[in-house]
Design goal:
Layout (H helix, E strand, L loop, with lengths): L1 H18 L12 E3 L7 H7 L15 E4 L6 E8 L5 H18 L5 E6 L7 E8 L2 E4 L1 E2 L2 E2 L6 H9 L13 H17 L7 H15 L10 H15 L16 H16 L10 H11 L14 H10 L8 E3 L6 H11 L6 H8 L3 E5 L2 H12 L7 E4 L13 E6 L12 H11 E12 L9 H10 E8 L13 E8 L8 E6 L5 E4 L2 E4 L5 H10 L7 E5 L20 H21 L1 H13 L3 E3 L1 H4 L14 H4 E5 L11 E8 L8 E6 L6 E3 L3 E5 L8 E3 L4 E2 L3 E6 L5 H13 L12 H4 L8 H36 L16 H8 L12
Helix pairs in contact: 5-8, 6-7, 6-13, 10-11, 17-21, 17-23, 21-23
C-alpha cells in the first residue's frame, strides 16, 4: 500500500514538472532522471556516494533529478512524499543530504519538496542555497508553490541573490492537454458543451475560495464546491448571482470524477495563491478557453488582443472604462492591468482604484457570473459588473465614459443584433472626445447596405483607425475576418482628418494542432507605435486622409502595395508550378484522354476576348501593373450552374483551391462547347478566394472566377508572377470585400529578369515531368493495342500527341521571345 502511495506521489511530481515546461524523457531527449536512472552517469553516482537520508551511511538517491540535456548538469534535486503533512520532511531531505552533496561538488542546484498525491491536497516547497544557507524562493513575501520553469531555474542558479519569482502561466499546449482531459471527463458525465464553462468556473472558484479544503469523497465533493463558490460571490457583494454557476450535485458520474478535475486544477496551482496574484486570472482565462467546447468562443477575446486594444486607447487611472458586452471580463481585466501597471498593490488598494472605473454589462446570468469569478480571482470581485442588457439597463452610462472597449457577439441570424448597433450603443456611453475600440466583423467595413451607417457615423465622429487580424485569431472555435474599429466621439470626421489602417498578419501566435501557440515576429507592438506616430509602411499600415463618404473602411483598400521579395515570389511560383505537375499526376488518365480529344479537332477553342462584348482592358496604364499586362474578365456565365453539367472529357475551372482550380471533367451541351484558348490566369472570387492558378490547357471557366488574359508583349513568366503576387495580396479580399477587376488591376508585379529566369528553369523541369506522365500513358495504351493485334501483320503506329500544347501557348503570346528564349 505504501508503494502505491509513493507511485502516486511520483506521478504528481511528473505532472508538476511537465506543467512547468520540463521534458520528462531520459536525457538527451529530456531533462529528468529518476532513482533507477542515475547509475549511467558516473559524476552523479560519485556525488551521491554515501549520501543516505538516515545519515547511517550507504548510498541513496533523490526521488528525481532535473538536469541539462547535453552535459547532464544537475539543476533541481527533488523529493516526494505521499502525505501532504510530510512537506517539511520532503524539502528537508532535498536540501540535506542531496542538495548539500551537489553543492559540495560545486554544482549549484535548486531543492524541491513535493508532498501529496492525486487523492489529496498538494504542497510544494522550493529552496536554493544562498549565502551559506538554504532559503525559500518567494513571491511577494510568500514561499512559491510551483516548480521553477527551465528559464526560471537558469536565472535562480546564475544569480545567488535572486530569491523572488513571479508565477508564470503554463503554455497553451499544456493547458490544452489538461483542458482536453477535463472535456473528456465532462463528456463521460453526459454534460453538454454549453454547460461546461459554468461547471469549470465553479470548480475553479470553489477550490480557490476553500484553499482546497473540501471533502474528496463522492458524497460530499460537489456540495462542498458549490458552498465554497457561493461564499465567494457573497463575499464579493454579488449574492444575487451566487447560484448562477454551480456543479450539478445530482450527477453521480461527475461526483466520481470530480476528484480528478480537482487534482488537475491543484497541480495548476489554483488553491495556493492569493487573489493578489494575477496568475490566477491568467490561468482562469487561458485554461478556461480550452474547456468550453464550441461555446467558449463567444466568451473570450484572446488576452493579448484585449491588452493590445487598451494600449491603443492609452487607458490610464483616470479613465472610466465600459464594455457593453463584457463576457467574462477580458477587456476590463486588461484595462485594470494597465491602470495598476507594475506596482504591487493589495486587494483593497486594487478595489479602491477600480471600483468606480470598470463597468461591464452582460444579459446572460451565467456569463456575468463567470465575469464576476474572473474578477474575484484577481482580487476585484466588487467592480461594476452588471447582469443586464446594455440596450435597456437603467444603469448603462450616458455620456460619462472615457473609453469603450469590447467584442460584441457577431450576428449569425437575421434576428441577432447587428454589430453596428453595438458600436452606436458604445458611442452613447462616451463623453465628447472619448474613444471607442471594438472588434467588429470585416463585413461591417465594406458592405454596401452599411454605407449610410458609415457615412452617418463619420458625420458625428472621427475614424481614428481600423486594424485587421489573422483569420485564425479565434480558432479553434471560429474562423472569421475581424477588425478593431477605433472612433473618437463627438469630433466630426473632417477633410483633414487622418485615419490609420493596419493589417496585422502575425499577432504573435500561430495555429498548431488546433492550439494557438506563440511565434516570433509578432506585429502588435509595431502596430501601436505606427498608430501613435502616424506611420505608413507598405504592405502593413497606412495613415491617410479618408473622405467621410468613402465607400469602405477596409485596410486592404488603403494600404500601399509592397514590393514583394524575390524569395516570396519564388515560393509562390514554385507552389503554382508544383500544382500543375500534381494536377497531371492526379488526373493523368482524364488529361490524356482530353489531349486525344483536342487532337481529334472536335472541340471548339476560342480566344475569350473575341466573344466578350465589353473587355476590361487597360485598367492601369503602368506596364508593371496587372491591369496593363492582362485583360481582366469574368468567367463564363453559362457555366455558373455547375449542377447541370454531365461527366465527360472537358475540364472546368471553378473557385476551388486544389487541382489547379479544376472542378472536374464534363461534357458541355452543343451550345456551350467552347473552350477558352490558353494561356491565362484564373482567380477565384468566391470559395478559395485568391487561390490563383495558371491555365495552360483549353478549358471552361465558371463565372465565380476572374480570367487574366495576357496582353501583347506580356511574357510567359508574367502569368506565374501575376498569380504569385495576387496570392501574396489575397489578404485584402474576403467574402465581404470581393476580388474585382478594379481591385486587382493596380497590383504591382516585380518583373525582375532573375525571377523570370528562375521560373523559366523551374517550369522547364515541370514540363519534362508532365511529358513523362503522358508518355507513360501512351506506352501503356500502345501495349494494350499490341496485345489485341494478331502476331502477324504490320506493327501498329505509335500513338502520339501532335501539336504539343506548349507550342500553342507560345504562339498565343507576344511575338517577341522572353529573355533567354522559351523553355525547352
Amino acid at each position: 500500500m505504501a508503494r502505491v502511495s509513493e507511485d502516486r506521489a511520483t506521478a504528481v511530481a511528473r505532472e508538476l514538472l511537465e506543467i512547468r515546461g520540463w521534458q520528462l524523457q531520459h536525457p538527451p531527449r529530456g531533462n529528468v532522471l529518476w532513482k533507477n536512472e542515475y547509475r549511467e552517469y558516473p559524476h552523479l553516482l560519485e556525488t551521491l556516494e554515501g549520501k543516505a537520508k538516515t545519515r547511517k551511511g550507504g548510498d541513496a538517491y533523490p526521488d528525481f533529478l532535473v538536469v541539462t540535456r547535453d552535459s547532464i548538469q544537475p539543476l533541481i534535486v527533488g523529493e516526494t512524499k505521499a502525505a501532504q503533512a510530510d512537506i517539511d520532511k520532503a524539502i528537508g531531505e532535498a536540501c540535506d543530504p542531496y542538495g548539500n552533496a551537489f553543492e559540495e561538488k560545486g554544482f549549484r542546484v535548486i531543492a524541491a519538496g513535493i508532498a501529496g498525491d492525486d487523492k489529496s491536497n498538494i504542497s510544494i516547497k522550493i529552496k536554493k542555497h544562498s549565502h551559506q544557507a538554504w532559503r525559500d524562493i518567494e513571491y511577494r513575501g510568500h514561499p512559491i508553490q510551483w516548480i521553477p520553469t527551465p528559464e526560471e531555474a537558469k536565472l535562480l542558479i546564475a544569480d545567488e541573490d535572486l530569491l523572488e519569482l513571479q508565477p508564470r502561466i503554463p503554455s497553451n499546449e499544456i493547458l490544452s492537454k489538461r483542458g482536453d482531459e477535463i472535456n473528456r471527463l465532462l463528456r463521460e458525465c453526459k454534460i453538454k458543451d454549453e454547460f461546461r464553462p459554468a461547471i469549470i468556473g465553479a470548480f475553479m472558484l470553489g477550490l480557490w475560495q476553500s484553499k482546497g479544503l473540501i471533502r474528496m469523497e463522492p458524497d460530499y465533493i460537489l456540495t462542498d464546491i458549490n458552498v465554497a463558490c457561493k461564499r465567494a460571490f457573497i463575499k464579493a457583494g454579488k449574492g444575487e448571482l451566487a447560484d448562477s454557476i454551480n456543479v450539478p450535485e445530482a450527477n453521480q458520474e461527475l461526483a466520481g470524477k470530480a476528484r480528478r478535475i480537482c487534482h488537475i486544477l491543484r497541480v495548476l496551482n489554483i488553491t495556493t495563491l492569493t487573489a493578489e496574484h494575477d496568475y490566477l486570472g491568467q490561468l482562469y482565462e487561458m485554461f478556461f478557453r480550452f474547456t468550453g467546447g464550441n461555446t467558449i468562443g463567444q466568451f473570450f477575446t484572446p488576452r493579448h488582443i484585449t491588452q493590445f486594444m487598451v494600449d491603443l486607447c492609452e487607458v490610464n487611472r483616470d479613465d472610466i472604462i465600459v464594455d457593453p458586452t463584457c463576457g467574462t471580463g477580458g477587456f476590463l481585466i486588461a484595462a485594470l492591468n494597465r491602470m495598476v501597471g507594475k506596482e504591487h498593490m493589495t486587494h483593497s488598494q486594487i478595489n479602491g482604484l477600480v471600483h468606480e472605473h470598470l463597468k461591464g454589462f452582460d444579459s446572460d446570468p451565467i456569463i456575468a457570473s463567470l465575469c464576476i469569478a474572473n474578477m474575484v480571482l484577481r482580487g476585484d470581485g466588487t467592480t461594476g459588473i452588471i447582469k443586464g442588457n446594455c440596450f435597456t439597463h437603467k444603469d448603462y452610462p450616458d455620456g460619462t465614459a472615457t473609453v469603450v472597449v469590447g467584442n460584441p457577439p457577431f450576428p449569425h441570424k437575421k434576428t441577432d443584433t447587428p454589430a453596428d448597433k453595438f458600436v452606436d450603443r458604445g458611442l452613447e456611453a462616451l463623453n465628447t472626445r472619448g474613444v471607442l475600440a471594438m472588434i467588429v466583423p470585416g463585413s461591417l467595413l465594406v458592405r454596401r447596405d452599411k454605407g449610410k451607417w458609415r457615412e452617418k457615423t463619420l458625420a458625428h465622429n472621427s475614424l481614428l483607425g481600423v486594424i485587421t487580424y489573422p483569420s485564425e485569431l479565434f480558432q479553434p472555435y471560429a474562423s472569421s475576418t475581424t477588425a478593431t474599429l477605433i472612433l473618437r466621439k463627438g469630433m466630426p470626421h473632417g477633410p483633414d482628418t487622418r485615419s490609420f489602417f493596419c493589417r496585422v498578419a502575425n499577432d504573435g501566435y500561430k495555429l498548431r494542432k488546433n492550439v494557438r501557440v506563440e511565434q516570433l515576429g509578432g506585429q502588435l507592438p509595431e502596430a501601436i507605435e505606427a498608430f501613435r506616430s502616424g506611420k505608413s509602411i507598405s504592405g502593413f499600415c497606412k495613415t491617410t486622409v479618408v473622405p467621410k463618404n468613402t465607400k469602405e473602411w477596409a485596410p486592404g483598400a488603403f494600404i500601399d502595395f509592397e514590393e514583394h521579395s524575390l524569395e516570396a515570389l519564388r515560393v509562390q511560383a514554385d507552389f503554382i508550378i508544383r500544382g500543375l505537375v500534381a494536377f497531371y499526376a492526379n488526373h493523368a488518365p482524364s488529361l490524356y484522354k482530353f489531349h486525344r480529344f483536342l487532337k481529334s479537332g472536335t472541340a471548339t477553342v476560342i480566344s475569350y476576348p473575341e466573344i466578350i462584348a465589353k473587355p476590361l482592358n487597360q485598367l492601369d496604364k503602368r506596364r508593371d501593373r496587372i491591369g496593363n499586362l492582362f485583360s481582366i474578365y469574368y468567367g463564363q456565365q453559362e457555366l455558373e450552374n455547375k449542377d447541370g453539367l454531365l461527366p465527360g472529357l472537358l475540364p472546368v475551372i471553378s473557385s476551388q483551391g486544389t487541382n489547379n482550380g479544376c472542378y472536374g471533367f464534363f461534357s458541355y451541351d452543343e451550345e456551350f462547347a467552347n473552350l477558352i484558348k490558353p494561356p491565362f490566369v484564373t482567380v477565384p472570387r468566391t470559395g478559395s478566394i485568391g487561390e490563383t492558378f495558371v491555365q495552360l490547357l483549353p478549358c471552361g471557366v465558371t463565372s465565380d472566377c476572374l480570367l487574366l488574359i495576357p496582353t501583347e508583349g506580356t511574357d510567359f513568366e508574367d502569368l506565374f508572377l501575376a498569380a504569385s503576387v495576387i496570392r501574396l495580396e489575397k489578404w485584402r479580399f474576403d467574402y465581404g470585400r470581393k476580388i474585382t477587376p478594379e481591385r486587382i488591376a493596380h497590383i504591382k508585379i516585380n518583373r525582375d529578369s532573375s525571377i523570370k529566369k528562375w521560373i523559366e528553369k523551374r517550369y522547364s523541369l515541370a514540363q519534362s515531368l508532365i511529358k513523362d506522365i503522358l508518355d507513360k500513358l501512351m506506352d501503356e495504351e500502345n501495349k494494350s493495342v499490341n496485345k489485341k493485334k494478331k502476331p502477324t501483320g504490320p506493327k501498329p503506329e505509335l500513338l502520339t500527341i501532335e501539336g504539343d500544347w506548349r507550342e500553342a501557348v507560345k504562339k498565343s503570346l507576344a511575338k517577341k521571345k522572353p529573355p533567354g528564349g522559351w523553355p525547352k
